[in-house]
Amino acid sequence: MKVGVLALQGDFQEHLEALRSLPVEAFLVKDEEGLNKINALVIPGGESTTMGILLTRWGLREKIVERAKNGMPILGTCAGMILLAKKVEDHQQPLLGLMNITVRRNAFGRQRDSFESDLEIKGLEGPPLRAIFIRAPIITSVAPSVEVLAQIDDKIVLAKEGNLLACAFHPELTGDTRLYRFFLGI
């Protein structure tokens, strides 16, 4: 399997290193040529507005949407989750609009409010997953087609819809590759 990590902005290098520890070929994707070489895509955390603008400017938005609609799995983490959403509360920005979710940016507060938590994840074997939340979004509403996989209190932080996986935290920072393995099984 060939997995690409969108490398327009954000923490793409950390995702690449995590994926390279698994039995997959992992590449940075910066253009349409790179997108055409992969079977699955990871959209990293970073600044979602900037990433959305760059996706549009460089003509990748439409190509990613087309590939996703044709079944390519996509994992969106933090800013990547925002880009996957159909709607963002109280904010206008370019989105991929692929997943039937509404998100709220910076739902846990500012940078200084970042935290770690152990998450029970539906369908993930083993002990709770250590999750790192940095200015993290949350999912505030889901369509019936969306499966909620993890929550903190009543806040949805991980959800799946078909070939799409939206994650509010940063799995690339923990050394635990179980979420990537779960994603690769989609």
Strand content: 25-35%
CATH level-1 class: Alpha Beta
Number of helices, where a helix is a run of at least 4 consecutive DSSP H or I residues: 6
Helix-strand string: EHEHEHHEHEEEEEEEEH
The overall pLDDT average reads 96
Please report the distance between the alpha carbons of the first and last residues: 12 Å
Strands of the widest sheet, in order across it, are 2-1-3-4-12-11-10
Any descriptors?
single chain; 186 residues; alpha/beta; Rossmann fold; seven-stranded mixed sheet; three-stranded mixed sheet; 6 helices
Structure summary:
This protein is of the alpha/beta class and about 190 residues long.
What would you note in describing this structure?
- By secondary structure, this protein is an alpha/beta fold.
- The chain has a single domain, classed as Class I glutamine amidotransferase (GATase) domain (Rossmann fold, 3-Layer(aba) Sandwich), CATH 3.40.50.880.
- The strands form 3 sheets. It has a 7-stranded mixed β-sheet. The chain has a 3-stranded mixed β-sheet with strand order 5-6-9.
List the helices and strands and how they pair.
Elements: E1 2-6, H1 12-20, E2 25-29, H2 32-36, E3 40-43, H3 48-57, H4 60-69, E4 74-77, H5 79-84, E5 85-88, E6 99-104, E7 115-119, E8 129-133, E9 138-142, E10 147-152, E11 155-161, E12 164-167, H6 178-184
Parallel strand pairs: 1-2, 1-3, 3-4, 4-12, 5-6
Antiparallel strand pairs: 6-9, 7-8, 10-11, 11-12
